[in-house]
Each structure stands twice: as C-alpha cells, then as structure tokens.
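Exercise 7. Given the encoded structure of a 408-residue chain, write a plausible sequence.
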C-alpha cells in the first residue's frame, strides 16, 4: 500500500503572477458567474511537485493545558532557486515573503491552514538546496493582538467569544469560526487596554470550561462543556484486527493530573473550595488553583470546583499517544484517520504482548502530528482517556449509572 497523497498550496498575489483572473470583455476570462477566473487577490498555487517533506503539529499535551498554536514545517526542493526571494527568474519572484497563506491536505482532507512566518534557505555545495516554509495557525495572530479598553456585558461564554472576535481590533471573520452558545454566564468585567486577545479568549475557555483551538481548516473553534462525548460511530484503533492498526502506544499511569483540592476564584469573588479527603489521605494533598475567572457568581465557581474534583481526584491510567503508519492502511482507513479532529472521541483496544485480556478504553484526541516524506506518512495522535467523562444520558458507555461524573 502507498502513503496518502499530500498537497501543499501557497497563497500568492494574482497581480504579480498574472492570473487566472477575470478580464472584462474577454470571451473566455470575461464570462460572468464563472468560478475559474477570480476578480483578483490571493489564489492558492499547488507547489507539491517540489515537496520533500512536511511536519504538522497541533493540539496540547494534557487535558488541563491550553491548546498551542499549530505549527508546520514544509521542506521544498530549491535546486532551481524556485523559492529564493532574490532570484528574479523564479515563477514566484516577489512572492517568497512571510505571511503568505499556506494550506496542506492529504487525500483531499484538510491537515493544516495558516500563514508562513519564515522562509529558511539551506544551500549546499553539492547543489541539493532546500527551502523550508515555517508556518503557524491563527493562534499566532491572536497572540499578537490587543484589546482596547471596554466593559463587557454580562453574557454567556459563546456570546463573549463572538464579541471579542467581532471587535475592530480583532476582526476575525464570522465565516471562519464555529462558536457554541456556552453554559456559563460571565460577569460584566472591565477589560483593560492592551489585554492580550488570545489570553482573554483562553480565560473564557477556562471559565466555561470548554475548548478553544484552531481547526485543521483554519476555523476558530469554541466548544462549550455541553458538547457531550459519545461512544457511537467512533474510530477504533486495535492490535487484534478489529480496528485500525497502530505501531506504538504510549501509556501513562500516574499523578500528573491528580488534584484532590480544587480552589476556584472568580474576579471580584471569594475562593470556592472542593476537597476529597479520601483521595488526600491516600495520595497526599494536591491543589489545583484557578483564579480571576470571569464567572458571574460564587455559586458557579463552587459548581466548577465540584466538577473538577470529580474529574481529577484519582490517578489516571492514560493513553498518552498512539502512532499510525499510514502506508500500512487501506485508503478507506487512511481517510478515516485523516478525517479526525481535535476533541473527537476514539476507542483504543490492545493486549500488551498478547498476555491477558484486552484493555479497551475510550479517549479524546488532544493532539495530532503528521510527519511525511515521499515514502512515509506517520500520524501521532495525543489522547486523554475518558475514564471519568461526564455522564451522558442513554449512551451505552458513558450513560451507565454509578459511573463517570455529573456535569453542571
């Protein structure tokens, strides 16, 4: 079997490359309502013929961490100086500059969308020269933006996210975001001039609590806590032939996310504490502090503390990551893996060294990494095990009585 077909496209300015764009009165390029010839601006040009390798990394390390900006490194053949910004005979002359949009897909499925931050050129006396486009997703842009001073209204978290993205100093397109309504009501807080946009959005995420990340298609995503996990129609990875095969599985069993004393403090509020004395007696006291949240009442803070205590008061047997070599899969399996996105639920089945009964667990995707070249395409999926997922009514796995934790 072969590796998936990876496509890399870079957005270049039509005005310097000469089209294809709409030309008034032209019998071909002047036809109204055509979809081939645009009015101008940026078009994506396929540079896959020069592709030597791609790395993409998106997600976070652990469930309580914030999502990082997605990153990509695209290595291109530059023996003909095609991607040399000083070579005026290049077909992309004048276009090899930072902040060009870049999108990557595999077998037609989106893998990454962002902008090029740097071009790194490596020259060799042998002539095997390469150009590396180093890119990042929209989080990098948000991290460089600042809010003007204003007072927010009391509203749900989703409305607050949209209000931030709509502000003129941010101006994130409404067509490039997926924002849930939210469950937590936020206070009418005073936002200081110069407040970092990304940090403020992540404070909203923490107050919900939910998920804020940039999707592989470049869309801004805010998921509230009501997005229930489900055990139905999930991708299964297995070492016994009953699911998609994987090469390696990393398992962690420890106290990295063990917290049996939770202290939640909202802005202008008093600390709300939830404790599990049984866990403290067995493992010692481990405190998780979250302060300056945007919640509107101390009662909400206490509900959040109780929820987090139920989720993190016991050590976790955690599937940390699994690695898949795409060349070992059928095309249908490749496409199923490529279709996965952050926060989706998967099932993992494995029997260590074939000894004993199979271990079967559900997990949520926390990270996705791609490494590709002409002969190999490996995908590493970071995971967070769902042993303590919130109760989901009528679900055959997460809806069992006396299991999981209640949401709020």
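Solution.
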């Amino acid at each position: 079997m072969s590796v998936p077909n990876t496509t890399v496209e870079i957005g270049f300015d039509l005005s310097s490359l000469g089209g294809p764009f709409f030309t008034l009165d032209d019998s071909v390029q002047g036809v109204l309502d055509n979809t081939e010839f645009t009015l101008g601006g940026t078009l994506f040009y396929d540079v896959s013929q020069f592709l030597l390798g791609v790395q993409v990394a998106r997600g976070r390390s652990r469930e309580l961490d914030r999502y990082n900006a997605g990153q990509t490194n695209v290595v291109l053949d530059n023996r003909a100086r095609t991607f040399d910004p000083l070579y005026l005979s290049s077909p992309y002359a004048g276009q090899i500059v930072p902040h060009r949009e870049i999108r990557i897909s595999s077998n037609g499925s989106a893998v990454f969308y962002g902008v090029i931050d740097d071009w790194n050129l490596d020259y060799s006396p042998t002539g095997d020269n390469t150009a590396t486009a180093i890119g990042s997703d929209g989080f990098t842009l948000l991290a460089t933006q600042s809010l003007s001073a204003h007072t927010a209204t009391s509203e749900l978290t989703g409305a607050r996210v949209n209000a931030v993205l709509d502000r003129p100093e941010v101006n994130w397109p409404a067509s490039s975001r997926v924002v849930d309504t939210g469950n937590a009501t936020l206070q009418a807080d005073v936002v200081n001039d110069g407040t970092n946009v990304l940090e403020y959005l992540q404070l909203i995420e923490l107050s919900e609590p939910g998920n804020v990340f940039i999707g592989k298609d470049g869309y801004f995503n805010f998921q509230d806590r009501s997005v229930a996990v489900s055990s139905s129609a999930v991708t299964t990875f297995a070492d016994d032939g009953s699911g998609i095969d994987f090469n390696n599985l990393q398992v962690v069993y420890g106290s990295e996310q063990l917290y049996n004393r939770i202290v939640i403090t909202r802005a202008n509020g008093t600390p709300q504490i939830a404790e599990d004395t049984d866990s403290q007696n067995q493992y010692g006291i481990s405190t998780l502090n979250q302060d300056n949240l945007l919640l509107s009442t101390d009662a909400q803070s206490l509900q959040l503390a109780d929820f987090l205590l139920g989720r993190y008061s016991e050590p976790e047997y955690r599937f940390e990551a699994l690695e898949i070599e795409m060349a070992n899969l059928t095309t249908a399996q490749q496409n199923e893996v490529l279709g996965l996105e952050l926060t989706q639920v998967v099932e993992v089945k494995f029997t260590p060294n074939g000894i004993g009964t199979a271990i079967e667990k559900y997990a949520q995707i926390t990270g996705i990494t791609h490494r590709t070249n002409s002969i190999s395409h490996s995908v590493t999926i970071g995971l967070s095990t769902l042993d303590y997922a919130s109760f989901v009514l009528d679900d055959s796995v997460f809806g069992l009585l006396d299991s999981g934790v209640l949401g709020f």
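Remark. The chain is about 15% helix and 35% strand. Students should compare their own answers with the one above.
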